[in-house]
Amino acid sequence: SSFNVLGTKLSSLLQDAVGGTPNVVFNPTSDDIRSSLSLDLTLQWSFVEAIQLNIDLEGILEGLDIDEDLKKFVKGIIAFNDGQGIVELTGSISFSLGIGLEYVKKTKKIVPYFRGITGITLTFSADVDAEFQASIGPLSADVDILATIDNYGEP
């Protein structure tokens, strides 16, 4: 129908103008009492970023307000070797707008309305996968860290 073509063109214009992933749906309905035309518009932007983790014991110790002899002692007995890690951040923001016009045939009035889908949704996730080897004097350990923080299901 002509509304499908209009929806496709509006989606293309929105993508060119604001980016993201637009979705446009027109829904015309009519019966003996009223006619209505609703528009559901959704714009979504997403990002994914991966960050390499490095453990900088010297940098950590330099940032602390502790005695220099204690810093030398800690550096002498604690060692991080062969460490690697990745933090992956993902997120999205979604804007939804539902509007419509209703024409009541008996009163010949046009009534605008908002639909219940109107709103903004934010999602966020941080996944951490790190592993490193550490030693304190003669003792050594392999350390694996897996963690996920998100608000999926609870935007």
Described by strand count, sense and barrel closure, the largest sheet is: 6 strands, antiparallel
Structural class: alpha+beta
Helix content: 10-25%
Strand segment tally:
6
Distance between the termini: 35 Å
User: What order do the helices and strands follow?
Assistant: HEEHHEEEE
**Quick check: average pLDDT?**
81
Number of helices: 3
Tertiary shape: rod-shaped
Flag low-confidence runs. Answer: none
Tell me the Rg in angstroms: 28 Å
Which band does the percent of strand residues land in?
A: over 45%
Provide a quick synopsis of the model.
The chain is α+β, with helices and mostly antiparallel strands and 155 residues long.
Describe this structure in words.
The protein is an alpha+beta fold and 155 residues long. It contains 3 helices and 6 strands. The chain has helices spanning 2-18, 57-62, 68-77; strands spanning 21-30, 34-53, 78-104, 109-114, 119-136, 139-150. Strands 1, 2, 3, 4, 5 and 6 form a 6-stranded antiparallel beta sheet that branches.
